[in-house]
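For reproducibility, we list the full input for the zinc ion complex.
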Amino acid sequence: MKRPSPRVVTALVVGALAIVALTVDLPSPRSAAPFAKVGADSAMAAVPAAPAWHERSDTLHAGETLSGLLARGGIGSEGIVHVLRAATGLDARRARAGMPVSLRTFGDDSVPSEVVFHLAIDRLIRVSRSGDSIWTGAEETLPWHVDTLTASGTVHANLYQALDDSASELLPANARAELAWSLGDIYEYKADMSRDLRDGDHFEVLFERKEGPGGIVRIGDVLAVRFALSGKEVDAVRYEASSGRAEYFDADGHSMRSAFLRAPLSFRRISSVFGRRKHPILGTWRSHKGTDYAANSGTPVRAIGDGIVIFAGKKGGYGNAIDIRHPNGYVTRYGHMRGFAKGIHSGTRVSIGQTIGYVGMTGLATGPHLHFEVIVNGVQRDPRAALRDKAGLPIPAAEKARFDTMRVTLLAQLDARIQVGSQRMASR
Ligand SMILES: [Zn+2]
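The corresponding predicted structure, in tokenized form, follows.
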């Protein structure tokens, strides 16, 4: 004999409360009508107005405790203990400032009957009172609706512009930026999306659009991409290995990752106003053989590959600079930094993507930016050339067959949808 799990019981209790709430929450159109319109002798006059729920929205202030918030909402000290005890899953000490909390009070009651802690847009804890002091709580996950969609774009200025031009009907602005960032992440070992794109570069992408509570739209997984990067086609397919870990591979089954990131700043950190062609003038430093990245002061700077810090300190016009020697002998240099990340000094071993410092304008710099160099055999080289074509590792043989099936399926799905989309465009 199996007893119902506490979760089921909680769900039933919450369900029952929800039904009660719904029943009384919906005022009938008649009782809501202005009384004066109904004749005094009408039978309607005898119908009492249904008591209503009053909802009060509050937020946890900085430095405030949850107890303080609940007290402000009209719950006594004993009740507060019960509410917080019932709100399992809510760590009172770690509740973040700004968390919305709603308190619902029934009719003329002086004490709320329900407290909802909004942990995230899709997650809440609802604590409800039955009787005078019995509080029960349950965590609820609000559903997201997931669609698989395609978008395509042609670059004239930058990735943002390409998506603004083509996907404005499909995605709100925040989601278009998110999709651009996802593409930047997938290709961050192949291209520096802030400066490697050429006019006319074109992409097609198969991705998940998640629509959440309140109509919020987010980008889920990007499943497949066809991208003509500087004129060269580089496809990327998301593959979830048998281990459950997901990674992107190109059409030949080579990992999209390699020994070096193509840029020392994440694409999502670079101000979108600086496009493919327009780079700000950052001064007239004469020995200028590197790449400048305009970014806000304080933007994290990352090591583009594994290596050892061989210099960290002040270096003339470079200001606060770091040199890293990589296993293949390349040295990368990062200059004008405001400061270094904790623990970074000469001799520190760093890994790819690790934050080593923060953008600033020390040394000869007229505005906040990162100066970046790749030095090969003691000579400064164009990073674009030096870091080109470092192919990733092939997918493990044991995964190859499964990957091939997935690749064919996803790319076919992408191509078919793009074709349907362009036919639809043509028939407009
Ligand atoms: Zn520079």
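The radius of gyration is 29 Å. Residues 1-44, 272-286 have pLDDT under 50 and may be disordered. Both points were considered when choosing residues for closer inspection.
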